[in-house]
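Open question from group meeting: does this chain pack into something compact, or does most of it stay loose? Before anyone orders reagents, we agreed to write out a predicted structure and look at it together. Recording both the input and the output here so the notebook holds the full record.
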Amino acid sequence: MGEPALVCRWRLTKRRVPLLNRHIRALAARRIQGAPVGRGLLSWAKQHVEWSLADDTTVAVPDDGVLMLVIDTAGQAAMSTGPYERLASTAREALIYRALDAHREADRTGVAPEVLAAHRAGALVLGVGAEDPLAGVASLAAQLAEARGVRIERDPALPYRALAGACAGALLLLSDEHGVVAAGDAPDVPADDLVDLLVAGYEKLRG
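Structure tokens returned:
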């Protein structure tokens, strides 16, 4: 393969990718060197996960793992799997910087694989622009929140507000690799039912 242009990391559970359809929709919204991902590659990725990964038991796949899809600048793709590794830190600042890195990736590819979110004033605020397509876990979180009657707002400056200490409410990272991750160092923020719902909803889908 040539130089990687896009790397997607999707959580694996017992030889399946629980949010596969959402990931494929987000992959379709991505760009490689400014061009959309081709339909043939989308079909290959979906079929490889649904058939080869699920059925080929001669290939060792961790029960709790990560599938990595790499697409190079020429549009060639490859997949690999490995064990899942927890985030080294779930501190607010660590989650914010991950979201900022993902935002820079979205500038190149069109979709951020990790999105910062906040639950405040009765809304789930997503740190993306009004027209930005959502990655798999972010789209799941938005759907779960809306089903609960929570309105969805978008604010691309959310990570910067949070970094400056100007963001009240519970803070969380919506990550295709790590799921729904609540900030772990906010003792002044009370327990949040919506955050608990999003975490539980994601874990239920993972099985």
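Observations to bring back to the group:
DSSP finds six helices and ten strands in the chain.
The mean pLDDT is 91.
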